[in-house]
Amino acid sequence: MPFNLPIFLTWLRVALIPIFVAIFFLPDTMLLAHMRNITGAVIFALAAVTDWLDGYLARKLGQTSAFGAFLDPVADKLIVAASLILLVQLSRTEGWMAMIIIGREIAISALREWMAEMGTRKSVAVAYIGKLKTAAQMVAILLLLYAGPIVPGLNTLVLGNVFMVLAVILTLWSMVYYLRMAAREFAGKKIDL
User: Fold this and answer.
1) How far apart are CA 80 and CA 168, in angstroms?
2) What is the pTM of this model?
3) Quick one: which of 173, 36, 170, 46 has its CA closest to 92?
């Protein structure tokens, strides 16, 4: 298993998850609610930056690896799932939205794994619609974690849930897109189920 700076950043993202979750369960005597929100949002933002940075560095430094390609999306899905579950627990978003996003992530990851075994993973490679979904999801989660004032009259919980609804729509749209791309590969091929 290779160990380099991009892999370190990916592991850092995984290591941040329990710290990130624990922050929200600290008593007010240790950390006031508003500071928990700020700290949680900053940790999530740091994780999002390391997600971009590890991929950039891996390509720039020529340190891409099969293990890194496996671990990076796992780390992403873990922190997003932990964030969504936490936001539902905190009553900042709806459980059905979290279930759609997490369910899609599991389904598409499984599809990609299956397609990789068939040697056709590129047919379900990340598309622009998937990037839009990720952007909407990240903005929604950041706003809902922060849950505080940014500009007078702007309710971050309402705005965060608007972005969450957008993320859910893009989640379903991208899932249909990936399933259609996979179906094209399956057309005319005998598939062992």
Assistant:
1) 13
2) 0.88
3) 36
